[in-house]
Backbone:
């Protein structure tokens, strides 16, 4: 019998992904930046690349950057098979003792303890909600990928003031299949009236590399249409995520979405012209204004142009935190309202009352 020696040295797990940003070499940081990471997104394990994509389907330049970060064909495929590629999307995977004092205080304000943060016990949803302030009346938890679907469902079923929406985010469209649709529909059924919309879903061409590839744009368009074909016949309002995709988004929406449909154009950062198309063509579309309105720039122009009666305030927590706020959560809505009031030259009370009525019309609570 002839024995063949196989060198497994290249199959060792890649520990680079668990390293702190500033522990990377300068060459590794440059490679990470080329792949779309920032220091903040790296520390938050916010994965910017398509997930579960085969090594052979990656561009040579992307493969080069990944090799700089310690990946190779074998480690990449092993991680893809096990679901570890991009598994950190949307969550901070550090342990409690890895947080600095300010981060621990912020987490405590949201109802986390050491045991809850380290997943040693279930989240105390009631404690977290109590940190949102006495005026808190409700929020929508988004389940828009395989990891967040069960979390949003659990949150909606755990607290009377937390609702949920379910869909497939465009950055997760590579995972979209019959099984995922089955899971989403099961979540809607389990939550009953607590499931208030389909989404967030849509098109996102903003990635500096993948956003330019026609292959990935095509997949996003196909998944967007497939979800509209499910959501609209079932009567679900829509939560739309649209980034750098004006022409395709309008073309698809005009074909598949009735003019009287309800939709929340989530944290809109597009052009005034595109916003005006939404407002004029769909009378029940609302423009989402998030913490980015406190950062100046084009979002202020959008805010000033958008009628208050067509606006929704949102946090996109834990992302898009307003300037001066340490952690984004539903309790910072008044901070966003204050800036909207300044831009529009009206009272904070008017902003809160009007947008609250808009939210009730859109989501039903």
Residues:
């Amino acid at each position: 019998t002839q024995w063949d020696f196989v060198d497994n040295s290249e199959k060792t797990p890649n520990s680079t992904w668990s390293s702190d940003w500033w522990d990377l070499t300068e060459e590794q940081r440059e490679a990470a930046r080329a792949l779309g990471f920032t220091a903040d997104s790296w520390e938050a394990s916010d994965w910017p690349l398509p997930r579960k994509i085969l090594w052979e389907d990656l561009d040579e330049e992307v493969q080069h950057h990944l090799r700089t970060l310690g990946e190779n064909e074998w480690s990449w495929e092993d991680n893809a098979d096990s679901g570890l590629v991009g598994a950190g999307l949307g969550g901070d995977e550090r342990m409690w003792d890895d947080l600095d004092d300010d981060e621990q205080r912020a987490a405590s304000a949201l109802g986390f303890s050491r045991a809850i943060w380290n997943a040693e016990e279930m989240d105390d949803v009631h404690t977290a909600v109590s940190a949102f302030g006495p005026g808190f009346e409700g929020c929508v938890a988004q389940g828009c990928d395989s990891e967040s679907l069960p979390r949003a469902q659990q949150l909606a079923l755990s607290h009377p003031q937390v609702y949920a929406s379910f869909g497939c985010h465009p950055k997760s469209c590579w995972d979209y299949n019959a099984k995922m649709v089955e899971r989403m529909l099961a979540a809607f059924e389990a939550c009953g009236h607590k499931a208030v919309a389909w989404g967030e879903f849509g098109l996102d061409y903003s990635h500096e590399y993948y956003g330019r590839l026609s292959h990935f744009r095509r997949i996003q368009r196909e998944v967007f249409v497939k979800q509209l074909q499910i959501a609209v016949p079932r009567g679900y309002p829509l939560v739309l995520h649209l980034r750098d995709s004006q022409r395709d988004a309008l073309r698809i929406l005009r074909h598949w979405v009735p003019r009287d449909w309800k939709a929340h154009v989530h944290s809109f950062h597009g052009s005034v012209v595109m916003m005006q198309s939404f407002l004029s063509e769909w009378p029940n579309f609302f423009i989402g204004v998030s913490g980015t309105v406190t950062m100046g720039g084009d979002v202020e122009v959008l805010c000033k142009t958008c009628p208050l009666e067509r606006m929704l305030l949102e946090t996109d927590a834990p992302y898009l935190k307003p300037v001066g706020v340490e952690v984004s959560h539903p309790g910072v809505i008044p901070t966003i309202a204050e800036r909207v009031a300044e831009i529009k030259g009206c009272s904070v009370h008017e902003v809160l009352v009007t947008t609250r009525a808009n939210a009730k019309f859109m989501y039903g609570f």
Residues 126-363 form a domain with the TIM Barrel fold (CATH 3.20.20.140). Confidence is low (pLDDT under 50) at residues 1-11, 80-91. The chain is about 40% helix and 10% strand. The chain has three domains: 15-79, 96-125, 126-363.
